[in-house]
Specification:
about 120 residues, mainly alpha, 5 helices
């Protein structure tokens, strides 16, 4: 059973990183959501400084570390509830990391946003 759960999660993540239309739509929607969430703090003058720059510059590494941190929770006889909980917490962590990276001093601005 643990192998099946890990296989399904791995296949889902691989699919979402792929070039397919649904995967691109999910990534675009997530990017729009984090951009909208990060826009207000940037306009208010909040900056995350070097931490935000680190998160923005090394987004793939921070995403990989978040996945690696969640994997041990699913290692020993995961239940459906445990999988849902770990995936939910992982998505929340990834959203927070994306928002923090977005309102760093060097993060790219969204459409129509003026320079501070």
């Amino acid at each position: 059973m643990p192998l099946l759960v890990v296989s399904v999660i791995t296949a889902s993540v691989a699919y979402l990183y792929g070039p397919g239309r649904p995967a691109c739509a999910v990534r675009t929607t997530a990017q729009r959501g984090t951009t909208a969430a990060g826009r207000a703090p940037r306009r208010a003058g909040m900056r995350t400084g070097s931490t935000g720059r680190l998160l923005a510059d090394h987004r793939a590494w921070t995403t990989g570390c978040a996945f690696a941190a969640g994997a041990p929770a699913l290692w020993n006889h995961p239940t459906v509830g445990a999988v849902v909980l770990v995936v939910g917490v992982l998505l929340a962590v990834l959203a927070v990391l994306a928002v923090l990276a977005l309102f760093s001093a060097t993060a790219p601005r969204g459409h129509g946003e003026s320079a501070p």
